[in-house]
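[job 4471] stage=fold_predict status=RUNNING
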Amino acid sequence: MLGLATLLNLATYGPPLMAALPGLSYFHASRVTLASTALSVIAPGGAAAGMATTVAKLRACGFSGRPVGFAVVVMSVWNQSVILGFPILAVACLAAAGARNRTLEIAALVGLAVFAVIVAGFAIALSSERLANRVGDHAARLITAAGRLLHKAPVKWNGASFIPFRDESIELIRRRWLFLTAAGRRAASSRFADVAT
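[job 4471] inference complete, writing structure tokens
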């Protein structure tokens, strides 16, 4: 049973990335996400190492820079939203059915708070071109200042670079929100099944 649950879990790694980067094959998506997930668990830097691996491997698959970065950000935010959102829904369903558990309810409230912050942050970043431009300018200044400490050149992008990202994000989410959600949910469910066995 554990072997079957593990195989199911491994089979669900590719679809979320396929949803965020149309044209990526299942085989390549699975290779990329399995490698980046493994590195995010064992390498110093965790998630940053995993994201860097995802970007490098997608470029090796022939995808260009901006769609790659875009896919990584959208997939990451969407997956975190699914991972935090569905357990909240499950606890609400249990409470509605009369099966109350104080510990689960507290955990669900904490998850709801984190979920709300992620959704609000993503929505604010996508809400207007002016705001996307301001966020991009602040991010560029912050990264340039941090880079100076490491004797790095200033970044070559600014807030204007965030406007096309905003437009592409809105279009991708509008067209593929159901695929992104279903793929993320399937992956989260299989990981839970793997842990539960």
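[job 4471] summary: The chain has one domain: 2-196.
[job 4471] exit 0
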